[in-house]
Amino acid sequence: MASAVGQYFQNIRESAASIFEGLTITLSHLVRKPVTIQYPDKTPRPISEMMPERSRSWLKVEMDTCTACLMCETSCPIDCIKITVAKDSPKGKAMSQFDIDMAKCMYCGLCTEPCPTGAIHFIPEFERAAYSLEEMISHFVPEGDYVVPYKPPKKDKGDEAGAAAEEKPEPVPAVKQVESPELATATEKAGEPAVQDIPDKETLH
C-alpha cells in the first residue's frame, strides 16, 4: 500500500517537472522582444525597403534601354514572356507587344542574365494580389502603341585598339639551360644531365 502511494506521488512530481520543462522556452519568450512582423498593418517601414538586395520578386522592363534582342523570351523555360516586333510599323522596326505573365513565372532569373543592357530585372515589390489571372500579366507596351528598340552606341575603332593593347600580356622572359656544378654529382648518379634554368641576361635589362 505504501509503495503504491509513493509511486502515485512520484508520478505527479515527474509530470509537473515535465510540464515545467516544456514551458521553459515558452515562458522565456514573455520577456523577449518580439521578432514577428505584423504584416501588413504594423511594419516599421515599407516592405519594399526591407527586401534583400538580390531578392526575386517582380519583373520590370526598362523599355528605354530594351534592344528587342528577344534573349529574355528565348531564355524563359516556361514561355511566360511574349515579345512581338513589327517591322512595318509607323515608327519602323518597333515592339508592339512586351508582356510578362507573372502568374506563370517561376522567378528563376534566367531572363535577366543574357540581357545585354540589363533592361529586364527584378524589383523589390511583390504586393500585387489580383482577382484574376489576366491581371497578373504586365503589359510594358501600351495597346496600339509601338516602342522603338534601343540602339547601343558603337565603339570607335581607336578605343577598341587601345583596349586590346592594354589587355595584351607582357612577354615572358626567356630562359636558358646551363650546367650546374653543384648538381653534377647528384644528377650523374641518377643518370640525368646536370642543368639549371636561369633567366637570360638580355631579358633582365
Describe this structure in words.
By secondary structure, the protein is an alpha+beta fold. The chain is 30% helix and 20% strand. It has a domain at 57-139: Alpha-Beta Plaits (2-Layer Sandwich). The protein has helices at 2-28, 47-50, 71-75, 157-167, 181-190, 201-204; strands at 58-61, 81-89, 92-101, 120-123, 137-139, 175-179, 195-199. Strands 2-3-5 form a 3-stranded antiparallel sheet, with no helix packed on it. It has a two-stranded antiparallel ribbon with strand order 1-4. It contains 6 helices and 7 strands. The longest helix has 27 residues, at 2-28.
Characteristic key phrases:
alpha+beta, three-stranded antiparallel sheet, 7 strands, two-stranded antiparallel ribbon, Alpha-Beta Plaits
